[in-house]
């Protein structure tokens, strides 16, 4: 019994020594701090260095917008430059906090000249009723507005395939009897019909001159004239 007690005591002491060794090792291990990111944010490329703060693009600043302003009226908002952006005031002194003046309106209410939208080449511009497509619009950099700067909008089909109205009309007047106007617009079946019927004995030719002149007949791909 005495030897058994001695064996258990030695095992307990051995486990206690190992625990103390592990605690000492973990305590003396130096703490390694996570490396801070050194990459510049993507918006920095849009921000001119040492320019006027009030003329910075909207992506270069953060503003406390007030949605209770009166629509269509001038409004003033407090803004602050984003990290890594450097700008100055009228006295060429560096500043971080400044104010901007803008018209109280949401981005989707801006005039069409203040934003850029994606184009669609799948819809027909010559159709009744006129077709629309879902576009994604982005506000231009120097324009300030309320709400999201990227928004969806329903737009009329307005893309062009490079066909000129003047060229189509000139071909219809001069070589319309041979179907040159229809061939130019990509309408091969109508072109062949005019070619083998000598312009419908001249009647089809005169009708096409009128239809192309008023813009009723357009390119076969459904695009607009240039």
From TrEMBL:
Topological category with respect to the lipid bilayer: Multi-pass membrane protein
Gene Ontology CC entries for this record: membrane
Entry superkingdom: Eukaryota
Keyword presence, Signal: yes
Subcellular location: Membrane
Alphabetical UniProt keywords: Glycoprotein, Membrane, Signal, Transmembrane, Transmembrane helix
Pfam family, one: TM2
Transmembrane spans: 195-217
InterPro entries linked to this entry: TM2, TM2D1-3-like
Domain TM2: 162-209
Family: Belongs to the TM2 family.
Protein name: TM2 domain-containing protein 3
Organism name: Crypturellus soui
Gene name of the record: Tm2d3
């Amino acid at each position: 019994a005495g030897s058994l007690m001695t064996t258990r005591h030695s095992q307990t002491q051995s486990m206690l020594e190992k625990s103390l060794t592990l605690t000492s090792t973990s305590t003396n291990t130096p703490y390694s701090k996570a490396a801070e990111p050194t990459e510049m944010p993507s918006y920095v490329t849009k921000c001119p260095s040492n320019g006027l703060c009030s003329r910075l693009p909207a992506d270069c600043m953060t503003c406390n917008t007030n949605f209770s302003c009166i629509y269509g009226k001038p409004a003033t908002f407090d803004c602050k430059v984003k990290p890594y952006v450097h700008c100055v005031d009228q006295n060429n002194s560096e500043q971080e906090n400044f104010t901007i003046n803008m018209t109280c309106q949401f981005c989707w209410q801006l005039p069409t000249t203040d934003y850029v939208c994606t184009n669609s080449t799948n819809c027909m511009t010559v159709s009744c009723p006129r077709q629309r497509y879902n576009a994604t619009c982005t506000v231009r950099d120097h324009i300030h507005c309320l709400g999201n700067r990227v928004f969806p909008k329903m737009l009329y089909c307005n893309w062009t395939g490079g066909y000129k109205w003047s060229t189509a009309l000139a071909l219809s007047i001069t070589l319309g009897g041979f179907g040159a106007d229809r061939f130019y617009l990509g309408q091969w079946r109508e072109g062949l019909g005019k070619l083998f019927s000598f312009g419908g004995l001249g009647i089809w030719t005169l009708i096409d001159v009128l239809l192309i002149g008023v813009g009723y007949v357009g390119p076969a791909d459904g695009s607009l004239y240039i």
